[in-house]
Amino acid sequence: MRTVISNTLCLRGGQASAPERLTMVFEKGQIAALLPADAVVPDQADERIDGRRLLAVPGFVNAHTHSPYNLVRGSAPMLPLELWSLHASAGSERRTAREVEVSALLGAVEMLRTGTTTVLDHIRIAPDIEGDLLDATAEAYRHAGMRAVIAPVVADKPLLETLPLDSADFGGEEVAGYAARPTLPARRQVEIVEAFAARWRDDPLVSVGIGPSGPQRCTPELLVMAEDFARRHETIAHMHVLETRAQAEMGRRLHPGGMLAYLDDLGVLSSRSNLVHANWLAKGDVERIAQRDAAVIHNPVSNVRLASGRCPLPRLLRSGIRVGLGTDGACCNDSGNMLETLKWAAILHNDEAEDPARWIQPGTALRLACEGGADAIGLGKVAGRLDAGMAADVCLLDLDTTAFVPLSDPVRQLVLSETGGAVRHVFVDGRAVLRDGRCTSVDEPSLFAEAQELSDRRRRDNQDVYAAASRLDGPIRRMRRRLLSSCEIAA
Ligand SMILES: [Zn+2]
Q: Name one GO molecular function term (predicted).
């Protein structure tokens, strides 16, 4: 399959930061050539697109989301993480393979429609990780034609042990059961991920990482096994780290130097580590992350929605730390649209520096959303830049849309004005997965009808899980009040 997109305005990413007019040739899933705009491409092309009124950018890399939440979108109230999760998680338990697949497909459609071509799916299968449900997720991305790194969540501590609860927080309430539920042994969980990785080893679009839910939710043995898995498979260990004040307190309980000192002492902080959020870093943590060459995944919208805290993005970038951007899940953002995340990443941190020269620039946000994310999740040699030899993962936007008229600065307008409505064509691996604004691989009306039916049924059938989870509401509220009123945590 040979596709020619002629004379199009390109933001290539990487070292080439200025817009250029080029003619792109895709062949065998790759960008075969980037030619001068007026180059005559004599050879036969299977498809030709006139690019004169299009803007080409590398497909965005959503470096952190959780596909199960797509099927409970809109169900979680406005609450901080620890209370929010009692609602969000209960609805995504006991899924069938088809529910898992439909949930991932919903996210894939939303992402492709808004220009994202690669996703890191930190998928939690609950109550216990199961190989066939992981396969169903991978099948969804294969079906949608989207590039995915799937990092199955592993965790082996009961919920009650993962929160900085004191006995007084319980106020005599009985919360056992759901909150004290045992997990599969760590070794068994890693074996399931090993078998999943073996089944998908040669897939052109889907690859497998591992996703410890968070250091406070795993035993040291599991964290070490996950790092060992990542090293052997040359992939990433993707985990939530220091998202909230309560997690910072858990870090302090695990190690006097805090959570990252704990990971470092275990020998599991490395260039394979994805530190998702990193909002509550302790003294010396930035230097530690830089020294170990770990990557941080910044999720600005989710952090604000859940009032989790703020990632010190400008400082991380000044320290040379690798950073990607993520939307986080459809219950805490509540969108999978990376263009929103790009904008938030670009403007959220402006109040941190008086000197505007130190603000995050739109071009920086774009770089993080493309090559930054690809590099962080282990696909830096494949995706994130428009260069010959890279995968033909490309988003083409219509310049005859309100976001780009009049055209002054394509980067600034892409990051600050565009919301997804201008996305016209999207290619993944050289294949058009969105053509003239229509998904080519998914029958959207029938997917949406099935999703509604499955979601209604699951919410009804999981009422006992919602009720069991809600018993933790009181203790968590008391815990939060205690943490907020104490000076235990250095902000
Ligand atoms: Zn998350």
A: hydrolase activity, acting on carbon-nitrogen (but not peptide) bonds
170 lies in some domain: yes
User: What is the distance in A from the centroid of ligand 1 to the CA of 284?
Assistant: 24
66 CA distance to ligand 1 middle (Å): 6
Mean pLDDT of the chain: 95
Distances (CA, A) of 134 to 68, 129, 339: 11, 8, 28
Measured CA to CA, the distance from residue 179 to residue 264 in angstroms comes to 29
Number of domains in the chain: 1
Residue 178 has a pLDDT of 82
DSSP 23: E
Burial class (CB in 10 A: 0-12, 13-18, 19+), 463: exposed
Dump pLDDT digits (tens) for 268-301.
999 999 999 999 999 999 999 999 999 999 999 9
Distance CA(246)–CA(317), nearest Å, equals 25
pLDDT at 489: 46
Domain for residue 36, yes or no?
Answer: no
pLDDT band at 339 (very low <50, low <70, confident <90, very high): very high
- Contact status, residue 260 vs residue 268, Cβ threshold 8 Å: no
Question: Which residue would you say has higher pLDDT here, 236 or 40?
Answer: 236
CATH number for 347: 3.20.20.140
Q: How far is the CA of 42 from the centre of ligand 1 (A)?
A: 48
**Residue showing tokens 């998680």:** 89
Range of the domain at 125: 60-376
In a domain, 456, yes or no: no
DSSP string, 382-411: TSSS--TTSB--EEEEESSSGGGSS-S-HH
